[in-house]
TrEMBL record:
Species, as recorded: Nocardioides dokdonensis FR1436
UniProt keyword annotation of Ion transport present: yes
Location relative to the cell: Membrane
Family: Belongs to the cation diffusion facilitator (CDF) transporter (TC 2.A.4) family. SLC30A subfamily.
This protein's name: Cobalt-zinc-cadmium resistance protein CzcD
Length: 310
């Protein structure tokens, strides 16, 4: 019976596993980046000229979109770059997670700015150009809908793309808010509707940022992948013929579509290590979508394992 460890690697393309998810959607990120970058300038200028805080707030959020999409593009490039230093043993895939974290910070910053500006305008009745608001709001809605179509599929597979997608979702809501504000101001003649809608946009952006931020922190904190029952994984490994005990089981997400795990498998006497190792790797790959597993098979639980307290 051999004692050692093995690495399980699943397929990178096709099959059940997603491999490096973000890189597959790079062109979609690039097109979305181009569309939103161009429209950001239009909306910012229109907001300043019209005096609409709703337009300015949406332009500020669109600026965050531009930075977030740009960071997402850079991250997908970095994530696929070959490591020449020999020090990044897991590659640079976490760059995508950091890009998502940047998107969260930008969204929170925009939300804070809009809310502060809205509070400052309370009690006033600012004059706004509703015609400009309607035209720019409609154009912004069309641009955002096009970006949503491009990014929707990637948001299901990649946390990085999801961060960019949620930015665009929030901005789409902002465009709808601009249209609503323009209609209300035009119908009532009261400019405070513009301020109220801007406040609502800021609050919405903040909520979306917190939701994404929780996911980013879960990955950086090396929590078990979402939806993975670690006890069920341990039971499945313990059910492998010849396995007597499972300990030191850890599972986490490296980046979207890349789940990894480590574990020690204690074998019954006279059990061959290689068949048990292969069976365990197969279970992790097929049942739990863990394509990279480092498994150590042991004749008995060692003192080193018992002495480690973390």
């Amino acid at each position: 019976m051999g004692v050692g460890h093995g690495h399980g690697h699943g397929p990178q393309d096709g099959g059940q596993l997603t491999g490096h998810a973000g890189a597959r959607y790079r062109w979609r990120l690039a097109v979305s980046f181009g569309l939103i970058s161009m429209f950001f300038v239009v909306e910012l200028v229109a907001g300043i000229i019209s005096g609409s805080l709703a337009l300015i707030s949406d332009a500020g959020h669109m600026a965050a979109d531009v930075v977030a999409l740009g960071a997402a593009l850079v991250a997908t490039k970095i994530a696929t770059r070959t490591d020449d230093t020999g020090r990044r043993t897991y590659g640079s895939y976490r760059a995508e997670v950091f890009a998502s974290g940047l998107a969260v910070l930008l969204m929170l910053g925009v939300a804070a700015y809009v809310v502060i500006e809205a509070i400052g305008r309370m009690g006033t009745n600012p004059e706004v150009d509703t015609g400009a608001m309607l035209i720019v709001g409609l154009l912004g809605l069309l641009v955002n809908l096009a970006a949503l179509v491009l990014l929707r599929a990637g948001a299901k597979d990649s946390l990085n793309v999801k961060g960019a997608y949620l930015e665009v979702v929030a901005d789409t809501a902002g465009s709808i808010g601009v249209l609503a504000a323009a209609g209300l101001v035009a119908a009532t003649g009261e400019g405070y509707w513009d301020t109220a809608v801007a406040f609502a946009i800021g609050a919405f952006v903040a909520v979306r940022a917190v939701m994404l931020g929780r996911q980013v922190l879960a990955v950086l904190g090396q929590h078990a992948p979402a939806g993975l029952d670690i006890d069920a994984v341990a039971d499945s490994l313990a059910s492998v013929p010849g396995v007597k005990d499972v300990h030191d089981l850890h599972a986490w997400t490296l980046t979207s579509g890349m789940n990894v795990a480590t574990a020690h498998l204690v074998l019954h006497d006279n059990t061959q290590g290689q068949p048990a190792l292969v069976a365990a790797q197969t279970i992790l790959r097929n049942d739990y979508l863990i394509e990279h597993a480092t498994l150590q098979v042991e004749e008995k639980r060692t003192a080193n394992c018992d002495e480690v307290t973390w």
